[in-house]
Amino acid sequence: MNPSVFLLATLAVSVAAITNFDFSGEVKCESLGRWCFTVRAVEVDPISNDGLAKVEKCSDGDNVVKYSMIAASEDNDGLLNNEFEIALELTHNCSTNAEKTITTDYVNVPMSRDAYSMSMNFDLNTNTALPVH
Fold first, then answer.
1. Residue 9 above 80 pLDDT?
2. Residue range 77-96: mean pLDDT, rounded
3. Contact 122, 90 (CB under 8 A)
């Protein structure tokens, strides 16, 4: 195959496919005081992760807080890559004054998918993330 035809075909597929993302779950913190967290949905890249969506919340007494985010549509992940690598990063101050971060393993999502939903619960006291089934 002619290299320029291959390049044009690859670009056409990248432009034609648009994927919508949504994220949701619960964040648990057994703290007596105010605690806050930020959840970021990212598309993992070798040089720098691309932010897809972000939500910031604080609680003054509730031990469990729900979150949800809808990301802007994504139409490509770089040249010659036909999958999105999606992960969640959560930063919090639940158990200490210093911020801690939890990053989930990434999930490969084919660019040909119209939509993808990820539900993840976080326990900030143990710094763990559990997929919701």
1. no
2. 84
3. yes
> How far apart are the C-alpha atoms of 35 and 94, rounded to whole Å?
5
Cα–Cα separations (whole angstroms), residue 99 to 84, 86, 102:
28, 23, 10
Rounded Cα distance, 122 and 83, in Å = 25
104 touches 88 (CB < 8 A): yes
Q: In degrees rounded to 5, what are phi and psi of residue 11?
A: -65, -40
pLDDT-derived band at 87 (thresholds 50, 70, 90) equals very high
Cα torsion angle, 51, 55, 58, 63, sign: negative
Residue ranges per domain, the chain? 20-131
Q: Which of 99, 98, 97 is nearest to 89 (CA)?
A: 99
Interatomic CA distance for residues 108 and 84, integer angstroms: 6
Enter the CATH code of domain 20-131.
2.60.40
